[in-house]
């Protein structure tokens, strides 16, 4: 799926890749689909769809609780997926991986199971002003329950970089530092390794929201040095309703169960229970087995495509999109001007973002509009909503050109 140039740079064979995604051949309102909403969710290749179908047709059973062959197969598939995630993240062991419904549940798990036991009145939870609501609201709730306080690393205007001038002073007061790797609203790529190293030196626990980075570039939790890292399967070609939380073994030792029920226990009496060993301690009830199977297939597919090549393709597309968007007078583009994740958010002064997205949809172009679950960030930027185009390795420059043509038609109607 990749070719190597004379400069030893991996280049994607995008036209071949697109054939793996049935939905990309569809027409919307009679127009060829141009799907530019990948930051919200990605499309699924046949390899993932086929593995899910194969699981239900050949191996469907509940995990752990049976001694029959189908249960053994399902258990092997589920635990195989856990080992696959550990390999994908370079975790030290499969036991460091807790399956969740996605990034949101992973962060909630940490906020509840770690936060409520390790935070007390007056402790500081350090976040950033660019956080998704999923990495803000859970900490608001745990702060209310424990008496901890929230502090925020500021964002520097439309370019969307973190102002790290006072980061050492902020970390000196903090107990937990939770932050996004790539902003879903700005495309900012934060220096996770540097931030985790500073936090570790200050004795501060760290959580990385990798929802927007996990399918776009290699991730190595050993190199990053974080205590927790959460991601969602549906943002990297996997199914919805499945994700994973990396949690260092030492951190899991200081966490109570997140939910209670079957499988997360070892012994139950009428008035008390003893809990299972991690990670099962944090996975109550029948898990999303098909989701884990699909996630496994998605990670295999991404490795086949090549994460370094995907990252380079992201940079190429977003830079080209920003270059084309600057052709419009009066447009306001948010996010870094240099290295940026594969998305761009923008507004026109005379066109409401909702109207823009609605008219674009009539031309087969799927983009996202709103505050992108970063309402406080949008309020700081002085806008109620932005339009966002987000790219993945199956998108092309030609699609961006067509997208620009659609915007040109819309602008002419308004101006």
Which tags fit this structure?
415 residues, 2 domains, Aspartate Aminotransferase, domain 2, 21 strands, Aspartate Aminotransferase, domain 1, 14 helices, globular, 4-stranded antiparallel sheet, alpha/beta, single chain, 39% helix
Summarize the structure.
With 415 residues, the chain is α/β, with parallel strands linked by helices. It is 39% helix and 19% strand.
Topology (SSEs and partners):
Layout (H helix, E strand, L loop, with lengths): L1 E3 L5 E3 L1 H5 L8 E2 L2 E2 L1 E2 L10 H14 L9 H21 L7 E4 L2 H16 L5 E5 L8 H10 L2 E5 L1 E2 L4 E2 L4 H7 E7 L11 H10 L3 E5 L11 H4 L3 E5 L10 E5 L1 H4 L12 E4 L4 E3 L13 H17 L1 H19 L6 E3 L8 E5 L5 H9 L3 E2 L1 E3 L4 H7 L4 E5 L6 H18 L1
Parallel strand pairs: 5-19, 7-8, 7-11, 11-12, 12-13
Antiparallel strand pairs: 1-2, 3-4, 6-14, 9-10, 13-14, 15-16, 17-18, 18-21, 20-21
Helix pairs in contact: 2-10, 3-10, 4-5, 11-14
**In what range is the share of β-strand residues?**
15-25%
Tally of DSSP helical segments: 14
Instruction: Work out the number of β strands.
Output: 21
The CATH topology name of the largest domain reads: Aspartate Aminotransferase, domain 2
Structural class: alpha/beta
Please name the CATH architecture of the largest domain.
3-Layer(aba) Sandwich
Mean pLDDT comes to 95
- Gyration radius, rounded: 22 Å
